[in-house]
Automatic annotation (TrEMBL):
Residues 1-58 form the HTH lysR-type domain. GO terms for molecular function: DNA-binding transcription factor activity; transcription cis-regulatory region binding. PROSITE patterns: HTH_LYSR. The keyword Protein transport does not apply. This is LysR family transcriptional regulator. Belongs to the LysR transcriptional regulatory family. Keywords: DNA-binding, Transcription, Transcription regulation.
Length: 294
Protein backbone atom coordinates (compact mmCIF):
# COMPACT_ATOMS: atom_id res chain seq x y z
CA UNK A 1 0.00 0.00 0.00
CA UNK A 2 1.43 3.36 -0.99
CA UNK A 3 0.23 6.95 -1.11
CA UNK A 4 -0.26 6.88 -4.88
CA UNK A 5 -2.61 3.90 -4.61
CA UNK A 6 -4.56 5.67 -1.87
CA UNK A 7 -4.87 8.81 -4.01
CA UNK A 8 -6.10 6.74 -6.97
CA UNK A 9 -8.60 4.90 -4.75
CA UNK A 10 -10.01 8.20 -3.47
CA UNK A 11 -10.21 9.59 -7.01
CA UNK A 12 -12.24 6.58 -8.17
CA UNK A 13 -14.45 6.88 -5.09
CA UNK A 14 -15.07 10.57 -5.83
CA UNK A 15 -15.77 10.18 -9.55
CA UNK A 16 -17.44 6.72 -9.41
CA UNK A 17 -15.64 5.98 -12.66
CA UNK A 18 -12.21 4.66 -13.63
CA UNK A 19 -12.18 6.78 -16.78
CA UNK A 20 -13.04 10.05 -15.02
CA UNK A 21 -10.64 9.27 -12.16
CA UNK A 22 -7.86 8.53 -14.66
CA UNK A 23 -8.49 11.85 -16.42
CA UNK A 24 -8.44 13.74 -13.12
CA UNK A 25 -5.24 11.99 -12.02
CA UNK A 26 -3.53 12.28 -15.40
CA UNK A 27 -3.12 8.50 -15.69
CA UNK A 28 -4.09 5.78 -18.11
CA UNK A 29 -7.36 3.99 -17.20
CA UNK A 30 -5.53 0.65 -17.22
CA UNK A 31 -3.10 1.96 -14.61
CA UNK A 32 -5.97 3.09 -12.38
CA UNK A 33 -7.72 -0.28 -12.76
CA UNK A 34 -4.55 -2.20 -11.91
CA UNK A 35 -3.85 -0.02 -8.87
CA UNK A 36 -7.37 -0.54 -7.51
CA UNK A 37 -7.24 -4.28 -8.05
CA UNK A 38 -3.83 -4.52 -6.40
CA UNK A 39 -5.13 -2.57 -3.41
CA UNK A 40 -8.16 -4.86 -3.11
CA UNK A 41 -5.91 -7.93 -3.25
CA UNK A 42 -3.63 -6.50 -0.58
CA UNK A 43 -6.56 -5.70 1.73
CA UNK A 44 -8.42 -8.91 0.93
CA UNK A 45 -11.75 -7.17 0.29
CA UNK A 46 -13.67 -5.65 -2.61
CA UNK A 47 -13.61 -1.89 -2.31
CA UNK A 48 -15.94 -1.22 -5.23
CA UNK A 49 -19.10 -2.73 -6.66
CA UNK A 50 -18.70 -2.72 -10.44
CA UNK A 51 -21.84 -2.09 -12.50
CA UNK A 52 -20.72 -1.62 -16.07
CA UNK A 53 -18.47 1.43 -16.01
CA UNK A 54 -19.90 2.68 -12.73
CA UNK A 55 -17.81 2.13 -9.60
CA UNK A 56 -19.71 2.25 -6.32
CA UNK A 57 -18.06 1.90 -2.93
CA UNK A 58 -18.92 -1.25 -1.00
CA UNK A 59 -19.38 -1.16 2.76
CA UNK A 60 -15.69 -2.06 3.15
CA UNK A 61 -14.83 0.64 0.63
CA UNK A 62 -16.74 3.27 2.58
CA UNK A 63 -14.94 2.24 5.75
CA UNK A 64 -11.56 2.30 4.05
CA UNK A 65 -12.16 5.73 2.47
CA UNK A 66 -11.98 7.42 5.87
CA UNK A 67 -8.71 5.66 6.67
CA UNK A 68 -7.27 6.46 3.24
CA UNK A 69 -8.01 10.18 3.71
CA UNK A 70 -6.40 10.14 7.14
CA UNK A 71 -3.32 8.27 5.92
CA UNK A 72 -2.78 10.77 3.11
CA UNK A 73 -3.26 13.69 5.49
CA UNK A 74 -0.83 12.13 7.96
CA UNK A 75 1.73 11.65 5.20
CA UNK A 76 1.34 15.30 4.20
CA UNK A 77 1.70 16.35 7.83
CA UNK A 78 4.89 14.29 8.17
CA UNK A 79 6.38 15.85 5.04
CA UNK A 80 5.44 19.34 6.22
CA UNK A 81 6.97 18.64 9.65
CA UNK A 82 10.28 17.84 8.00
CA UNK A 83 10.10 21.16 6.14
CA UNK A 84 8.69 23.52 8.78
CA UNK A 85 9.63 26.65 6.88
CA UNK A 86 7.81 25.61 3.70
CA UNK A 87 4.29 26.85 3.09
CA UNK A 88 1.72 24.38 1.76
CA UNK A 89 0.30 25.04 -1.70
CA UNK A 90 -3.25 24.45 -0.45
CA UNK A 91 -5.16 25.27 2.73
CA UNK A 92 -8.33 23.25 3.35
CA UNK A 93 -10.81 25.37 5.30
CA UNK A 94 -14.22 24.32 6.59
CA UNK A 95 -16.96 26.80 7.35
CA UNK A 96 -20.60 27.06 8.20
CA UNK A 97 -22.64 28.65 5.41
CA UNK A 98 -23.49 31.62 7.62
CA UNK A 99 -19.85 32.36 8.46
CA UNK A 100 -18.74 31.94 4.85
CA UNK A 101 -21.33 34.49 3.74
CA UNK A 102 -20.86 37.12 6.44
CA UNK A 103 -17.29 36.83 7.71
CA UNK A 104 -15.03 35.18 5.16
CA UNK A 105 -15.20 37.30 1.97
CA UNK A 106 -12.83 40.01 3.28
CA UNK A 107 -10.72 37.44 5.14
CA UNK A 108 -10.15 35.28 2.08
CA UNK A 109 -9.52 38.31 -0.10
CA UNK A 110 -6.81 39.53 2.29
CA UNK A 111 -5.31 36.03 2.51
CA UNK A 112 -5.21 35.68 -1.27
CA UNK A 113 -3.61 39.09 -1.78
CA UNK A 114 -0.90 38.31 0.77
CA UNK A 115 -0.31 34.69 -0.33
CA UNK A 116 -1.48 34.15 -3.92
CA UNK A 117 0.63 30.97 -4.06
CA UNK A 118 -1.58 29.21 -1.49
CA UNK A 119 -4.91 27.98 -2.84
CA UNK A 120 -7.80 27.88 -0.38
CA UNK A 121 -10.28 25.02 -0.73
CA UNK A 122 -13.49 25.88 1.11
CA UNK A 123 -15.78 23.13 2.43
CA UNK A 124 -19.27 23.97 3.70
CA UNK A 125 -21.07 22.01 6.38
CA UNK A 126 -22.72 22.04 9.77
CA UNK A 127 -20.65 22.45 12.92
CA UNK A 128 -20.89 18.73 13.61
CA UNK A 129 -19.85 17.73 10.07
CA UNK A 130 -16.92 20.14 10.08
CA UNK A 131 -15.69 18.99 13.49
CA UNK A 132 -15.65 15.39 12.31
CA UNK A 133 -13.86 16.42 9.11
CA UNK A 134 -11.09 18.14 11.09
CA UNK A 135 -10.69 15.10 13.35
CA UNK A 136 -10.56 12.83 10.29
CA UNK A 137 -7.86 15.11 8.82
CA UNK A 138 -10.01 15.78 5.75
CA UNK A 139 -9.62 19.54 6.28
CA UNK A 140 -6.94 21.60 8.02
CA UNK A 141 -9.17 23.86 10.09
CA UNK A 142 -12.79 24.90 10.44
CA UNK A 143 -15.06 27.62 11.75
CA UNK A 144 -17.76 26.08 13.92
CA UNK A 145 -20.39 27.33 16.35
CA UNK A 146 -19.66 26.33 19.94
CA UNK A 147 -22.53 24.66 21.75
CA UNK A 148 -23.37 26.74 24.85
CA UNK A 149 -22.18 25.09 28.06
CA UNK A 150 -25.70 24.78 29.49
CA UNK A 151 -26.84 22.59 26.56
CA UNK A 152 -25.84 18.96 27.01
CA UNK A 153 -24.40 17.62 23.77
CA UNK A 154 -22.02 14.76 22.98
CA UNK A 155 -20.37 16.86 20.28
CA UNK A 156 -18.74 19.02 22.96
CA UNK A 157 -16.50 16.09 23.86
CA UNK A 158 -14.96 16.16 20.38
CA UNK A 159 -13.44 19.55 21.20
CA UNK A 160 -11.14 17.79 23.67
CA UNK A 161 -9.08 16.56 20.70
CA UNK A 162 -8.93 19.97 19.03
CA UNK A 163 -7.23 23.30 19.49
CA UNK A 164 -10.14 25.76 19.60
CA UNK A 165 -9.99 29.55 19.71
CA UNK A 166 -12.95 31.94 19.84
CA UNK A 167 -12.95 34.19 16.77
CA UNK A 168 -16.43 35.69 16.41
CA UNK A 169 -19.60 36.03 18.45
CA UNK A 170 -22.99 35.66 16.78
CA UNK A 171 -26.32 36.84 18.15
CA UNK A 172 -28.86 34.10 17.48
CA UNK A 173 -32.33 35.33 16.52
CA UNK A 174 -35.78 33.85 16.48
CA UNK A 175 -37.53 35.27 13.41
CA UNK A 176 -41.33 35.53 13.53
CA UNK A 177 -44.04 36.39 10.99
CA UNK A 178 -44.80 40.11 10.79
CA UNK A 179 -48.35 39.44 12.00
CA UNK A 180 -47.15 37.64 15.14
CA UNK A 181 -47.36 39.61 18.39
CA UNK A 182 -44.06 40.41 20.12
CA UNK A 183 -42.79 37.66 22.39
CA UNK A 184 -40.92 37.50 25.67
CA UNK A 185 -40.70 33.75 26.19
CA UNK A 186 -41.46 30.63 24.15
CA UNK A 187 -44.86 30.51 25.83
CA UNK A 188 -45.84 33.53 23.72
CA UNK A 189 -45.22 31.72 20.41
CA UNK A 190 -48.49 31.06 18.53
CA UNK A 191 -47.20 28.87 15.68
CA UNK A 192 -46.25 25.20 15.90
CA UNK A 193 -43.26 24.92 13.56
CA UNK A 194 -39.59 25.91 13.82
CA UNK A 195 -37.82 26.25 10.45
CA UNK A 196 -34.13 25.37 10.82
CA UNK A 197 -31.16 23.88 9.01
CA UNK A 198 -29.79 20.32 9.35
CA UNK A 199 -29.56 18.53 12.73
CA UNK A 200 -25.80 19.17 13.02
CA UNK A 201 -26.43 22.95 13.12
CA UNK A 202 -25.65 24.46 16.53
CA UNK A 203 -28.12 27.31 16.01
CA UNK A 204 -30.88 24.76 15.41
CA UNK A 205 -29.98 22.96 18.64
CA UNK A 206 -30.03 26.25 20.56
CA UNK A 207 -33.50 27.07 19.19
CA UNK A 208 -34.83 23.54 19.84
CA UNK A 209 -33.65 23.77 23.45
CA UNK A 210 -35.51 27.07 23.77
CA UNK A 211 -38.74 25.72 22.21
CA UNK A 212 -38.74 22.40 24.11
CA UNK A 213 -40.71 23.67 27.15
CA UNK A 214 -43.60 24.59 24.83
CA UNK A 215 -43.99 20.94 23.86
CA UNK A 216 -45.96 21.70 20.69
CA UNK A 217 -43.35 23.24 18.38
CA UNK A 218 -41.89 20.75 15.89
CA UNK A 219 -38.80 21.36 13.79
CA UNK A 220 -39.11 21.57 10.01
CA UNK A 221 -35.78 21.07 8.29
CA UNK A 222 -35.04 23.33 5.31
CA UNK A 223 -31.95 23.69 3.14
CA UNK A 224 -31.07 27.39 3.38
CA UNK A 225 -31.56 30.60 5.32
CA UNK A 226 -33.67 31.96 2.46
CA UNK A 227 -35.95 28.96 2.90
CA UNK A 228 -36.18 29.71 6.62
CA UNK A 229 -37.35 33.26 5.92
CA UNK A 230 -39.78 32.03 3.28
CA UNK A 231 -41.29 29.62 5.81
CA UNK A 232 -41.63 32.45 8.32
CA UNK A 233 -43.16 34.78 5.73
CA UNK A 234 -45.80 32.15 5.00
CA UNK A 235 -47.05 32.79 8.53
CA UNK A 236 -47.02 29.28 9.98
CA UNK A 237 -43.47 29.03 11.36
CA UNK A 238 -40.75 30.74 13.32
CA UNK A 239 -37.13 30.47 12.22
CA UNK A 240 -33.64 30.61 13.67
CA UNK A 241 -30.54 32.30 12.25
CA UNK A 242 -27.63 34.52 13.32
CA UNK A 243 -28.21 38.25 13.14
CA UNK A 244 -25.27 38.69 10.76
CA UNK A 245 -27.06 36.54 8.17
CA UNK A 246 -30.40 38.26 8.76
CA UNK A 247 -28.81 41.69 8.23
CA UNK A 248 -26.97 40.53 5.11
CA UNK A 249 -30.04 39.06 3.40
CA UNK A 250 -31.97 42.34 3.18
CA UNK A 251 -35.25 40.41 3.11
CA UNK A 252 -37.90 42.36 1.16
CA UNK A 253 -40.78 41.27 3.39
CA UNK A 254 -41.58 42.31 6.95
CA UNK A 255 -40.77 40.02 9.89
CA UNK A 256 -40.26 40.34 13.62
CA UNK A 257 -37.09 39.28 15.42
CA UNK A 258 -36.51 38.12 18.98
CA UNK A 259 -32.88 37.97 20.24
CA UNK A 260 -32.20 34.58 21.80
CA UNK A 261 -28.57 34.42 22.95
CA UNK A 262 -24.95 34.86 21.86
CA UNK A 263 -23.00 31.90 20.45
CA UNK A 264 -19.25 31.83 19.89
CA UNK A 265 -17.67 30.88 16.57
CA UNK A 266 -14.48 28.88 17.06
CA UNK A 267 -11.51 28.31 14.79
CA UNK A 268 -10.57 24.66 15.34
CA UNK A 269 -7.75 22.43 14.16
CA UNK A 270 -6.22 19.20 15.41
CA UNK A 271 -4.10 19.57 18.54
CA UNK A 272 -0.54 20.52 17.75
CA UNK A 273 -1.14 20.77 14.00
CA UNK A 274 -1.73 24.48 13.42
CA UNK A 275 0.35 25.17 10.33
CA UNK A 276 1.84 28.55 9.38
CA UNK A 277 -0.91 28.87 6.75
CA UNK A 278 -3.64 28.37 9.37
CA UNK A 279 -1.98 30.97 11.57
CA UNK A 280 -1.91 33.44 8.65
CA UNK A 281 -5.63 32.79 8.12
CA UNK A 282 -6.22 33.31 11.83
CA UNK A 283 -4.48 36.70 11.73
CA UNK A 284 -6.55 37.70 8.67
CA UNK A 285 -9.71 36.87 10.63
CA UNK A 286 -8.63 39.03 13.54
CA UNK A 287 -7.84 41.90 11.16
CA UNK A 288 -11.17 41.56 9.28
CA UNK A 289 -13.80 40.65 11.90
CA UNK A 290 -16.83 41.61 9.80
CA UNK A 291 -20.18 42.52 11.39
CA UNK A 292 -20.46 42.75 15.17
CA UNK A 293 -23.08 40.97 17.24
CA UNK A 294 -25.61 43.40 18.70
Amino acid sequence: MDFTSLEIFLAVAEHASVTRAATAAGRAPSNVTNRVRALEEELGVELFSRQGKKMTLTRDGRTFRSYASRLLALGKEARDALKPSAMPNMLRVGSMESTAATRLPLVLQAFNLAHPDIAVRLTMGSSEELTRAVLAEEIDCALIARMPADIVDARSEMLDDLDAEPIYEEEVLIVLPASHPPITTVADVRVTSLAALEPGCTYRRVAETWTRPAGSIRTTEVSSYHAILASVAAGDAIGVMPRSVFDLMDWPGAVRIHPLRAVQTLLVCRKGSRSPAVEILHQAMLANPGPSAR
